[in-house]
Amino acid sequence: MAVEAGPASLANPRGLMLDLFRDGARAAAPEPRTLTDAALDEDGVQVTAREVVLSRVGLYVGAAPVVLRLLVLPAATIVLIGVYGLGPLLPLAVVVALLSGADALGLLRAAQRKGLEPRLLPVGFALAVAANLLVAAMVRAELFSLATAVTGAYLVTTVILWTLAWGGLAGLVLVAANVPLQAAMVGLNHVHDPAGVPHALAYAAAGTIGLGLAVGTALIALTVLGFGTRLAMTVGMRAGREAERANILRGMHDTVLQTLEAIALQPESAAADPEQALRQVRGMARSQVIQIRRALDELAGARASGPQLSDELAELAGELAAAGLRVQLALGPISDADLPPNRRRALRDAAREALRNATKHSGVDEAVLRLDENDGQVIVVVRDHGAGFDPRARGFGLRQSICERMADVGGWADIWSKPGRGTRVTLHVPLDDRG
What we know:
Layout: H1 13-23, H2 32-35, E1 39-42, E2 45-48, H3 49-60, H4 63-84, H5 86-113, H6 121-138, H7 144-166, H8 168-189, H9 196-264, H10 274-300, H11 309-322, E3 326-331, H12 341-361, E4 366-374, E5 377-384, H13 396-408, E6 412-418, E7 422-430
Parallel strand pairs: 3-4
Antiparallel strand pairs: 1-2, 4-5, 5-7, 6-7
Helix pairs in contact: 1-9, 4-5, 4-7, 5-6, 5-7, 6-7, 6-8, 7-8, 7-9, 8-9, 9-10, 9-12, 9-13, 11-12, 12-13
């Protein structure tokens, strides 16, 4: 059952610490109001962003105690066998081998499922209890403290896992359960020892103190984890908002602003033929309506998958024709079905900006738009033979609408131009995430 984190946040550190003590790693994930409806596709399984955060917490933090005991318990057992021989410590060797096998299977399952499963933690506690009782009952009295120190380490890491997964209260429950367990262990090993009762009490007290320290250590790690996770998500959401703001600014520059500028810069000849000028203005307005509606659909997730990039570039050529630029479209043998939607949009919008720059600044009425693929890269080239310019003097359009737009999706743009020799803008993106 999922436990929702309370209103605690970085602005309320005391509340967050209380939530971490009560709920463990579940409270480390961001508040539900920030990640409620965000659905992600994890290997074909639809999960929420909050579940992804929790699974990562379990995998990378919760796995640490398991890896630690997987390394320490066999090593400690080998050292003891080297000193005292295998015969007296054979029960310990068998128990540690079984525990290590269970841990290895648990880590393998966690790696496959991208997270440890809290529901398996009671199984780990049952194994810890059984291992300690078996070793206590089967080893000689003179080796009792050494052998149970090894199996006790398994119990300590189990307490740490419970504290990380379910909070300090769960860890303290195990600390309390340790008192009768330690007494039973001493009773089994010293069944004929008249001093068994005081020995049991002293051993139980020492074990309980050790487990209490383990709970405290786990709570410190949990606090660092909780504040670190919240801080990372806060920074990430802030960066996401900044990226979205930059994207909106680019969209305004590439659509509404460009269209208004084109209308304002109508040539003087338009006054001689107002009907033709009106048709051009209406055509540009219709084009903008289509672009804005498409952008709104994409933001709202109305389209599961967009059209092919070649289709969008063909539409773009028609759009620029209404603005007076003849675009020669050259489509290479490319299948862009695997091209992620964000990269397809970036290529389309950057190509639009390059063509509009050609319309405004090149002094010619013709350009070439080429789409091709080479070595796992999708390449779009915009070329004109117009006036050219000094590429070192880059304005907002080149810097934001082309270069940074491509960089945002893992691509890049090469811009070549010389005065009097035209301009060539080459856009590159990987065809897929493996590219």
